[in-house]
Specification:
By secondary structure, the chain is an all-alpha fold. The protein contains seven helices and no strands. The chain is 70% helix and 0% strand. The longest helix has 38 residues.
């Protein structure tokens, strides 16, 4: 994983981790507020970090199954304004119609972020279970802090 070198990247890696965690713990409020107020540039950084994390996890796990039932449950937490585009993309991945990259191509950054975060959360749930997935994600954020990259914002 690339080490962040500027405050914008640190913000992006934390928001990606916090969004993934919000989906894992089924916190609809945190899912909705995690990206609130971010401009396109900041959303694109979050998207880039999520893609890196998804690809790292995919490399670690291989191609884990993504049960449609689990995808539906996690995706139900997404903000309503992203629902149609994001659900269409996620379903295409779950039914193996296409890979994630092709499924999210052409979506708005916010829709892409939610689709990738949902797929990442479902991969973690399917491969590790909720408790272990959360422990792994929490350990990763502890490493961020140990490397000198504290969360640059407050979670409400």
């Amino acid at each position: 994983m690339t080490e962040p070198d500027d405050p914008r990247l640190i913000d992006a890696m934390w928001r990606a981790a916090d969004l993934t965690r919000a989906y894992l713990v089924q916190d609809r409020v945190q899912v909705a507020t995690c990206l609130t107020g971010l401009d396109t540039s900041r959303l694109e950084r979050v998207l880039a970090w999520l893609i890196l994390e998804h690809d790292r996890l995919f490399g670690e796990l291989g191609e884990p199954s993504m049960a449609v039932r689990e995808l539906d449950a996690v995706a139900a937490l997404a903000p309503l304004e992203t629902e149609l585009a994001m659900m269409t993309a996620v379903r295409r991945v779950a039914t193996e119609e296409t890979g994630l990259t092709a499924a999210v191509e052409g979506l708005e950054p916010l829709d892409r972020i939610h689709a990738i975060a949902i797929c990442t959360a479902v991969m973690l749930l399917e491969a590790r279970g909720r408790t272990t997935a959360l422990k792994q994600l929490d350990a990763e954020t502890v490493r961020y802090e140990q490397m000198g990259y504290p969360r640059p914002y407050t979670i409400t």
